[in-house]
Amino acid sequence: MKAKPPKIAIGISEEGQNLRLVKIMRVEDEYRLLAARTFTLQRQIQTGDEEDLTQLEVDIVDSFEIEEDDSLDDLTLEEDHTNTDDDSTWFEVFELVQEVGSKTAVTVAEPQVFYTQFETDWALADDKLQKKVYEEVIKMKEFQHVTRDGVGVLPLEKERICAVVRESHFDLLEQLGKVKRIIGKRLPNIGFIESNVVSLVNLVVRKYEPKANTSTMILHVGRDSSRFIFLRGSRIVHISPLIGDGTSSSDIGNVLFSRLQLEMDSLDLNQIEHIVLSGLAMSAGLEEYFTDNLGLFEDFSEDYKIFSLGEDMLKQFSVDGRYFEDFGSYSSALGAAFRLLEPDPGEIQVDLTPTRIKDEQKKLKMSISGWMLLVALPVIVTASVYHIAKLDRDIRFLSSRIEFKENRLAEHRDLDLEIDAASSVLTEYDRSFTIIDSLVTGAETWSTFLQSVLNVSDDIGGIWFTDIISVEGRSVKLRGFSTTRNRIPYLVNNLHDADLHKVEVHEIRGKPVYSFEIDASAKIDTTRKIGISEKELALIQ
Known about the structure:
By secondary structure, the protein is α+β, with helices and mostly antiparallel strands. The protein has helices at residues 86-96, 126-137, 171-183, 196-208, 252-265, 286-293, 309-316, 324-327, 331-341, 355-361, 368-375, 377-440, 443-460, 487-493, 534-540, and strands spanning 8-15, 18-27, 30-41, 58-65, 102-108, 113-118, 151-155, 161-166, 190-195, 215-221, 226-232, 235-239, 272-279, 300-308, 463-470, 475-482, 499-508, 511-521.
């Protein structure tokens, strides 16, 4: 069921340090402007933690109000330079949006919203497209903290889309929430929260109704920033990055023209026929500047038209246009308010309202079944109390059983700990025995072999070893030197299962010596006597 449009629509536009508020209503077939106010904050509205109201200094820099009983022919905007402290300002804003029968829409700008474009819509629509865009957005490092309700989908031309990403915290809503907690009233009825680009485009399309093949360029100029938006018909073609220059820049005309040249080089647009100036563009003298310099572009039609959105809106409200140059700064707030006052299915529908705000605003509506349930409530309560008492008795009985079993379990756990400790000691013993066995294995064989080699070499004499190398299993390679050749065969004969591999002659200090390499076995034949007879020893010497 669609919500009924409010009697009074309030639009709040947040742009950096400026907070703009407009209040409009519909009287028969005409629209009536009730109030337009601008508040300038001493610090920029931003994301972050909550702060005390006393940390803000706010001035109402201009204020225009119209009494509801004035005739439409006599409406004028009157400027009010009243300064107020920060507390009373937020109280005043809160009271303005608390009017009976009213609903409020909030439109925000960077850095509380960001835009990121995708070149495809994945052939999806509605909730499936919303879910897909959210999944793609949170893959980006800078948006991993964003929640599902903080991502909106903005359709572009040629099946492209733009994700509108909201920061998780709105300072404006926090300040209104603080006032609510002080005075005890409900928060204002928030219809939706959207980005200022969406509000501005909806207002331009509503006001000028561009034809399907007509190309339109929107230039919105603020005090500290500006932006180009290009349309073909009512569909957005391109949103330029935010330009960090506004009316505070002394060379705003040249800056915007250079950026316009850059944007036009990358766009494929027909001849642009309409130029819509919004924000403070008129007061900056950009209409004359564009008229004098647009001849440099081939992308603009020869009979292009320049429209002042602020001036045209004042004419629609039948209001004295003395302040029309500055009234364009209320364009985003007006776009949001018109979307509330007269919803159009063809408008861009982006809602970045946090889910918690929507939940807080839901009203309880009771159907017939609800009233029947209310009548049966005493019986339900009695039955529930009896059932709860029975369950409570069961719980107490089971709790006592559990306590008994837990005590028994604790005793068993102590035994388990003792068993585990004994098992650990036994495991350590087994490990120690294994290491000792590995050390003893083969030790006797090698000791006997080395002893026999030393005994033979001592008996023969004139032999020394340089290498004793274990090759495979119990095979041994012996390398060394002998002072005479005939000592080497006796060495081989007195080793078990030995083969002479090679003998080479070398010279050490002018005397010949003989190097040898013998392959032998470390296994000792215990039945064989190892040694050199006296006769053999005499022959060697």
